[in-house]
């Protein structure tokens, strides 16, 4: 249920937009609105999406977040979430990503899906997702919570677009039918040292389940997932903090690897 007024949604959207675009930390929104609901969080996120699109950003896809046990335990939440992805967040493979326009950057290794058919809820299933998938590819997500000291709750995170900031797709694109997706392993290295590893099954048993969940949340928001969408299914391992000078290499079984660097 949406409990915030239209004026409050617009005001909170402007607060989040300022923190995102000028890279400063803000207190979690529930400090001011302790009764805020998840629907309120999505109302603020939707306002932010419409505002960015009106400013000329292009919606390229969506991300599921908090879909693995490692991520839920790390952030102290127990429900997955979704956020939108735009062209302004995309970065090429092997690029140098500046942290000067980010607040608390952290990286995650994810499996991304590119769709060849529209998907819609309610009751979207993992099998429908696989049937509608053109190919999967590995991705690194750079998340950036805008909340001071990572003190937040799910309602605030959803309003902050699930901490979305940057993303990099790359490696080798593969047809899902050629792979046993849940058993695919990933190793994340930071400056040559292993900092995380896991199998894709960490993501709700199968990353396609996370995409189905995303499609069903989109239905609740009155949206569908168009053909040609880029969808990230959620971090397989816990997120790892990065700073200028860091080099991240994500090695995915069967899907190749992706490297990025961070600079001031
Ligand atoms: O991508 C995600 O798993 C969303 C994480 C949201 C919370 C955080 O900033 O870690
Ligand atoms: Mg993520």
What does this protein look like?
The chain has 264 residues and is α+β, with helices and mostly antiparallel strands. The protein has one domain: Fumarylacetoacetase-like, C-terminal domain (Fumarylacetoacetate hydrolase, domain 2, Alpha-Beta Complex). The chain is 26% helix and 29% strand. It has helices at residues 6-22, 38-54, 69-75, 126-132, 154-159, 207-220, and strands at 59-65, 81-86, 96-98, 105-115, 133-144, 164-169, 185-190, 193-199, 230-232, 240-241, 247-252, 256-263. Strands 1, 2, 4, 5, 6, 9 and 10 form a seven-stranded mixed sheet that branches. The protein starts with 5 loop residues before the first helix and ends with a strand. 45% of the residues are buried. Magnesium ion (MG) binds next to strand 1, strand 4 and strand 5.
Task: Write the SSE topology.
Elements: H1 6-22, H2 38-54, E1 59-65, H3 69-75, E2 81-86, E3 96-98, E4 105-115, H4 126-132, E5 133-144, H5 154-159, E6 164-169, E7 185-190, E8 193-199, H6 207-220, E9 230-232, E10 240-241, E11 247-252, E12 256-263
Parallel strand pairs: 1-9, 3-12
Antiparallel strand pairs: 1-2, 4-5, 4-9, 4-10, 5-6, 7-8, 7-11, 11-12
The protein binds hexanedioic acid (0L1) and magnesium ion.
Magnesium ion is lined by residues 63, 65, 108, 110, 141, 143, 232, 234-235.
Strand content: 25-35%
Counting copies of identical and different chains, the oligomeric state is single chain
- End-to-end separation: 42 Å
CATH superfamily: Fumarylacetoacetase-like, C-terminal domain
What's the tally of helices? 6
CATH topology name, in short, is Fumarylacetoacetate hydrolase, domain 2
Shape: globular
Rg to the nearest angstrom? 17 Å
Succession of helices and strands? HHEHEEEHEHEEEHEEEE
The count of strands amounts to 12
Bound molecules: hexanedioic acid, magnesium ion
| Helix/strand class | alpha+beta
Q: At CATH's second level, what is the architecture?
A: Alpha-Beta Complex
